[in-house]
Design brief:
Largest sheet: none
Strand content: under 5%
Number of strands: 0
Amino acid sequence: MDTPGTTVAVPSGRGEVQPLIDAMSARGMNVSWSFQPADWLALRDAVRRVGVPALVEHAARSWQAAKSTPYSARYFLAGWTGLQDAPAYTGPRAVTPPSAASTYVQQMAAHAAAIREKKTRGA
């Protein structure tokens, strides 16, 4: 009996790559997906590391920049495997303290406002 969510990916890695194939097709980038087993595993690792949306966006930019329409997904493989890891969301970050320049500008604005206030009262 299969329990939902316990499906194991095909050892070649294509099981986890299928969402990328589907997303590429949905964006009109229909290419050949003929890879050697090691390339499938490298592609699977890229999917795990950076995610399908990042790979599709990279492919779309490469597709637009190509001199001729890419025929094979191999065209994108080097770029995909070279992408940086997706940043992990760690929650809200502390706001950096104001710089000395911005503090000075705020102080000068307060002084200017005080001078205008005095002139208004004294006039």
